[in-house]
Amino acid sequence: MQYIKNLRQYGILIAFVAICLTLSYISPQFLTVSNWSIIFTQVSINALLAFGVTFVIITGGIDLSIGSVVAVSGVVAALLARNDNYPVIVPILGGLSVGLLFGALNGFLITKSKIAPFIVTLGIMTIGRGLALIISKGRPISNLSESFNFIGGGDIAGIPFPIIILFIVFIICSIVLKKTIFGRYVYAVGGNEQASWASGISVNQVKIAVYSLCGLLAGLAGILLTSRITTGQPNAGASFELDAIAAAVIGGSSTSGGVGSIQGTLFGVILIGVLNNGLDLLNVSSYYQQVVMGVIIIGAVLLDSWNQKIKD
Amino acid sequence: MSQKPILEVQNLCKSFSGIRVLDNITFNLEKGEVHALMGENGAGKSTFMKILMGLLTPDSGEIILDGERIECSNVHEMLKKGISMIHQEILMVPELTVAQNIFLGKELHRFSWLDENTIYKKTRELLKTLNVNIDAKAKMKHLSIADKQMVEIAKAISNNAKIIIMDEPTSALSDKEVSTLFNIIKDLKNKGVAIIYISHKMDEIYQISDRITVLRDGQYIATKAASNLPIKDLISMMVGREIEDIFPETEHQTGKTIIKVENLSQKGKFENINFEVKSGEVLGIAGLVGAGRTEVARAIAGLDEFEEGEILIADEKVKVQSPKNAMKLGIGYVSEDRKALGFIPHLSVKQNISLSSLPSLSNKWFISDEKESALANSMKNNLKIKASGINQKLMYLSGGNQQKVVIAKVLASSPQIIILDEPTRGIDIGAKFEIYKLINELKSKGLAIILISSELPEIFGMSDRILVLSKGKQTALLTKHEATQEKVMQYAVH
């Protein structure tokens, strides 16, 4: 119950159930285990990004750079995973470090220069894309080791590995946000930065940590994507940040800060995934899918603000 | 006052999710009168005013404005009909000029071009009739709070307001500015403008108002001529019981010096501030707005830097570089600006109270819900915080209860020194009384307390010694017995 309450939006939940019912009526494929396995595998990358960006959005910030970070860390991981040169842990740590580094850089620039997060991460987005192209010389990197390709393509006891990663990260992120001091500070900083500072919270440290975490998860998403498509693609991840932000917003995060939850974001991620999957099953052209997605984003926020108004 | 009232309200009712907030309110307002609306927080004053502003629609009842019955309305319509409000929090665009703000929403134009010259000319005329000296071309953000308020009043007048609602208009004004405001109110009265005046400050109410209407728990209690209503009766009408003594006396002994401030200076803000506060002592800091009281407090609490001077705690020199640092040294600060620096609106009572002491309520990184709830519950009981529970969000609490939560948060970090900057600003008399009792309790527990207040009765009622500041300089440090109202005022304008 608490979970549903946290979403603050019964409306969107009802819409979700209605969509699922309609889809299962029209397409018998929809409600099968294998189809849901596909949906969750497909959304795993967006989920990792969306969890990270949820932390950022709750502090009242934004991170536009994550799509590019996916590309850079993916390219770096691919270079390290080529031709069985190193054990698989090396490309993994390489990709994660690149993500962490970019995130920390975002955090430092935002806290030290006092430039708006939108601008800083926009700049880093462009820089990241450029670096991905420079490092890869603009070409895809293939011939990755088998063990590396397992991350995105393998399975354990029939469960695709990306889904396992998704749920581990989901549980860790939920606990961090709800149960730890750091999580509480994230909400406090987003709710009232000045008051948090006056209450003895190191606001800058919290922000740097949040952007670093977001970068780290983008790095993980980069590894996952590279492994899934078995190639390091410098052009990968374009506009991924927008899907991630959309998922967080649909899940009840407020871009003015202080409000949001990992559970809500997961719901947003699944909603987007189901919609794309369902529209695919119905052979709806991807052009129309984009229009539908836009309507859903605005509709979710509208419903949310109506709910708030009724509450007040 | 035999003519027809400008505003008549009959049997006004309003409920929120089944709870009656206004129950059969009756109210009438004559032309050219100042009518005080009194009541504790939660009495229904602001709901009532929101209805008059057109922000809320009543469930039933009649509003007759200038002989005309008003149906369901909106803000623009009410503005057009002549009801304006001067808000407690000023609603202006900081980057625009004074004149642009006054004409916001009703810009003058020639064809499609903004007619800025006429706007400035008209604004200057308007400000002149109000006898205030404000540059029409100044940006709003550069104005003092007092001047911003004058601009709000000018804006109301430019809307041809027949009724002006003033909600705590003096909460940020110095005495001199208050008297300017009162002169303007008298002028408005003579012009036939009716004023609904909301304030928690008793002396002002009696100074300015003709009649007083009291609301309590959403109900209309009475309307009386101010000259016929002794303050004691007014208070008991508001709280529904008698309050014996507003400032409770306690026996106590002061102990060792806890904090000592030596030659504290910061260019442009304050210079050469010297004082000490002992265990179990209240040092009151008096002065006009702009005297540097809050600036000194902020420097001691680590919110601002200072250039020169020393702070000693238990005879040891300390460095306070941040609020975090100050709290580690045992300095707790309750800011005058509750909204900006006090609490997190989206977090609950519990989460706000624990905010400054989470490490001690946690097992490693994880917050212990048990310890956190225990702290919140005990604070809620001790400070009599009125909330539906410790999980209620702070944004839904009244100002007085928000303030208690902020104090609880500071107390939870177990300070030895607590700085209370305008702790009772904008809160009702019942909650004020409780905060005074709390200050005495903290005294008896041996805390060193610094109390900053613009209300002299509060300073006199609570302090053992009084430090007076004027234009950033320390002009007097008086004991309770030496101090008189006149003396303090003299030193304050020194």
Radius of gyration of chain A: 19 Å
Name the overall outline of chain A.
globular
Lateral strand order in the biggest sheet of chain B: 6-9-10-3-11-12
Count every beta strand of chain A, where a strand is a DSSP E run of 2 or more residues: 2
Mean pLDDT of chain A: 92
Ends apart, CA distance between termini of chain A:
21 Å
CATH class categorisation of the largest domain in chain B: Alpha Beta
The CATH topology annotation of chain A reads as ABC transporter involved in vitamin B12 uptake, BtuC
Regions of chain A with pLDDT < 50 over 5+ consecutive residues?
A: 1-7
* Strand line-up across the major sheet of chain A: 1-2
In DSSP terms (H or I, runs of 4 or more residues), the helix count of chain B works out at: 17
What portion of residues of chain B is helical? 25-40%
Q: Name the beta content range of chain B.
A: 25-35%
Order of helices and strands of chain A: HHHHHHHEEHHHHHHH
Largest sheet geometry of chain B: 6 strands, mixed
The domain tally of chain B reads 2
Main location (chain A): membrane
Membrane topology (chain A): Multi-pass membrane protein
Organism (chain A): Emticicia agri
Protein name (chain A): ABC transporter permease
